[in-house]
Amino acid sequence: MANYHPYDELLMSFAAGQLPNSLGLMVSCHLEKCSSCRDTVKTYEALGGDILASAEQVDVSEDLLSKTLAKLEEPQSANDRFIGQHNSKEVIASKIPRPLRRFIPSDFDELDWSGMSKNIKEFTLKIDDEQYTTKLFRIKAGKVLPEHTHEGNEFTLVMEGSFSDRTCDYHAGDFILADTSTTHQPRAAMDGDCICLAVMDAPLKMTGMFGRMLNPFLR
Amino acid sequence: MNTLREEAPRVGFVINSKTENSTPPKGIKVSNKQPNELNILLLKIAQDQDRQAFVALFNATSSRLKAFAMQCGASNADAEELLQECMLTVWRKAHTFRPEAGSAITWMYTIVRNKRIDMARKNRHETVQSDDLWSEEGTEELETDISKELEGQVARNLLQALPEVQKQVVFKVYFEGKSHSEIANDLDLPLGTIKSRLRLAMKKLDTIVKEQTSWLIIILMMNF
């Protein structure tokens, strides 16, 4: 059960189907683990239903009904067949959250992680998004990241393991937003690597002494 | 309070079975007439592949679905294509509609929302599709919580509860997907005003949902 949640504005945009791709996926991963946010999304979907019900009526072409009826018995489109494959049993056994399975085909361990240092590795997900970059970060158990702040917003979702930051502990499913006013130094828990999904609109900017040295490798 | 806890599952079950033939549970005002008719039509399509029910559902909802698509920015032709895609999906997926989980119009809303996403992104590689974001039927366990079972039965119009100025901002979110600052620009209002209107709207919705849940429990306790 997650303790840190996306703010309601994000959940509303999600229910409206209007989030950018990477943020939408991240919210969807959080919802898998959070029934209270699922309930909130349901409320916003009901609001969507009300908006649809109150839509002004416009004329529909007269032949559209007969054209639609003619198509009722046609086999499903290629797109729907694709959905069937994607939900195959094999994939469901995976540890990867369902929304990310098309983008992370195998296990976390199988990914081609690239290292900026021994303690932190990253993997960039190929998600079509004009606004955001989506990465997985893997912090080694017990290791601490250099203190850093952010040039823009960075949304983080803990996927596996946990990390702590000053006073807070974050566990799988927790959703964290860092912005330019956040300076932090996350440390992975001792009992295992921490894997986070990060969606960011600008590269990290290191503030500490060590951070400045490390910074160029982060880009 | 103990009584409630013991009674609850049984009460939930009774109401759930009544949903099948669309009889409203005693003492609770159910959704107004039209959405209830939509429920019946959907169930007929699901159970009997009833084409007449499909025609009736098409006639009852097509012009709103099209209007919704156009408010999201679709051209006339695209809106009709989206409408047709939605109705074909309704035909194929009617069996996944659960009257106890929400109203028919909300279910149709999720279809038009998802189809709009998929139409806009079709033929693009490495993109996100609606089925990445929302799981297909059956993957989500149906919760047995009493308040959830009742949700589909309750008469509520969330939209009506919002003042016009809040509705205006909410429409911008649903139809245009604009950021708060873009909305502020469009409406020529300070960013803070947009943020607080949206916040107030969300607070209001939350209050309504919570109040209704408590009332339903009270009504149920009085009835049994």
Overall description:
The complex is a heterodimer of chains A (219) and B (224). By secondary structure, chain A is α+β, with helices and mostly antiparallel strands. Chain A has helices at residues 8-15, 21-33, 35-53, 64-71, 78-86, 89-92, 209-218; strands spanning 114-115, 120-124, 133-139, 148-150, 154-160, 163-165, 168-170, 175-178, 187-188, 194-200, 204-206. In chain A, the strands form three sheets. In chain A, strands 1-2-3-10-5-8 form a six-stranded antiparallel β-sheet, covered by helices on one side. In chain A, a hairpin with an 8-residue loop joins strand 2 and strand 3 (133-139). The longest helix of chain A has 19 residues, at 35-53. Chain A is elongated and about 65 Å long. The two termini of chain A are 34 Å apart. The model of chain A is unreliable at 78-89 and 209-219 (pLDDT under 50). Chain B is mostly helical. In chain B, 69% of the residues lie in helices and 0% in strands. Chain B is built from ten helices and no strands. In chain B, helix 8 (164-176) packs across helix 10 (191-223). Chain B is globular and about 55 Å long. Mean pLDDT of chain B is 79; it is low at 1-33 and 137-144. At the A-B interface, helix 1, helix 2, helix 3, helix 4 and helix 5 of A face helix 3, helix 4, helix 5, helix 6 and helix 8 of B.
What topology, given as strand order, has the largest sheet of chain A? 1-2-3-10-5-8
- Terminal CA distance of chain B reads 13 Å
**What class would the helix/strand composition of chain A place it in?**
alpha+beta
Structural class of chain B: mainly alpha
Stretches of chain B where pLDDT falls below 50 for ≥5 residues?
1-33, 137-144
Indicate the percent of residues in helices of chain A. Answer: 25-40%
* Biggest sheet layout of chain A: 6 strands, antiparallel
Let me know the largest β-sheet of chain B: none
Number of continuous helical runs of chain B: 10
* SSE pattern of chain A: HHHHHHEEEEEEEEEEEH
Q: Any idea what the radius of gyration of chain B is?
A: 20 Å
SS element count, helices of chain A: 7
Radius of gyration of chain A: 21 Å
How many distinct beta strands of chain B? 0
Q: Low-confidence segments of chain A, ≥5 residues, pLDDT <50?
A: 78-89, 209-219
Mean pLDDT across all residues of chain A, rounded? 83
Mean pLDDT of chain B: 79
